[in-house]
Write a structure and sequence with these properties.
Oligomer: single chain
Number of helices: 6
Distance between the termini: 43 Å
Mean pLDDT: 82
CATH architecture: 7 Propeller
Strand content: 25-35%
CATH topology: Methylamine Dehydrogenase, Chain H
Radius of gyration: 22 Å
Number of strands: 30
Number of domains: 1
Shape: globular
Low-confidence stretches: 1-10, 12-19, 23-36, 57-64, 461-475
CATH superfamily: YVTN repeat-like/Quinoprotein amine dehydrogenase
Structural class: mainly beta
Strand order of the largest sheet: 1-23-22-21-20
Length: 476
Amino acid sequence: MSYRTRFGKDNSACDSGNAVEGSGSSKGPNEVSNDFDHEIAQLTKHRSRPHQLLSQDMPGKSRLLVSTMKMLVGRESNHSGRGRFSSADGCHVLSRYLPINGPWGVDESTSPAYVSQFSNDGLFFVAGFQGGHIKIYNVDKGWKVQKDILTKSLRWTITDTSLSPDQRYLVYASMTPIVNIVNVGSSMTESLANVTEIHEGLDFSVDGDEDEFGIFSVRFSTDGRELVAASSDASIYVYDLQANKVNLRIPAHSSDVNTVCFADETGHLIYSGSDDNLCKVWDRRCLITKGQAAGVLMGHLEGVTFLDSRGDGRYLISNGKDQTTKLWDIRKMSSRAMYPRLRDHDWDYRWMEYPAHAKTLKHPNDQSLATYRGHGVLRTLIRCYFSPAYSTGQKYIYTGSSDHCVYIYDLVTGAQVARLNHHEGPVRDCSWHPLYPMLVSSSWDGTIARWEFPGDDQVPTLERPRARRRRGYYNY
């Protein structure tokens, strides 16, 4: 039985038609361009396509769905001459089993959940709540709370967290220039800021004025020596942890920088996204002119809420307030923005629905490879990601949504392959386990929910918090 018929309709994988546009296509918003056979399709195929000798024994069968049983028989017979599955073989098998069963409860709070992420090895899971709590769960020990952190210097909410590559330290940001760092490798479970443990404050303000800006996004570099941060003063900051100071400030955009990340493990390239509707690429090796980007990526009609790098220094995806996710290739970037912002000044995404007339607008100089539609990017800075390389070959993208769901799209065809519907508030963040078919979603309803394939034997249950105070929400 295929995964399309394995589950019920509410949380099932589904093919609701193509929801992707090829760049430059004259087709409708739910059609695929004939020119969409670009390099990303070839890369995805190479990383998740089974070995021909393991998957077929007759000519002309390569386009048919390859069964796992047939691949196992081929492996046991050593048709490939290797006696094992390659990484692409494994991706082909695992990527067909989406984490859509459930949900099972991880935790709940009377405070909205803003951020949640697995560690790089999947052993730990980090969740941050607006009320100032950050919890680190040990996934292998039944989701036991490994560290319960009560923050300090919190203004409005925890806007972002990041776990160091060695999993010894965690940083958390708020709407201030101070990013706090905590030693999560210590033996103490409860970490009350500067009472039971020291939460060292890292000052990102160059002039020492702490009231000037807040941090929307913060990330460790791959080697753990630096932090990159996106701020409300339209700048990008790079903090040297060894020197304990900001070593680079880039006046990057003309509006709030909502999201930033390193492009790959080298740390030379930085991607940023802003409320000025632009994604930009920064090369730290050639910042000759202050504030001059290596390239600009145009296509969003409203502000960029989040972006995620594929990790290869070439491709990235971004969520926009124009209710789309876009796929980019930085080799198609421009030297400057060539089109003014298209903006309905009467519209505010924090409390208004997206205008109906704006849904048909297209950027005349759209440089994106593809555009994915279906989810909502309203109320808060909704996040999107590539699916894991190990288990899926990055053949999917997934995103939270303001309509309380998680959406999973096929990267190449754009088909909506799953819509996870459970929460009662916007899903701001979600995270796919790097090794297993497991996905965790966090919502403003205060719940952290776990989705799996096939899931535990027990019946999924997830109780709501009994009491929840109503709060106002802003562009964080």
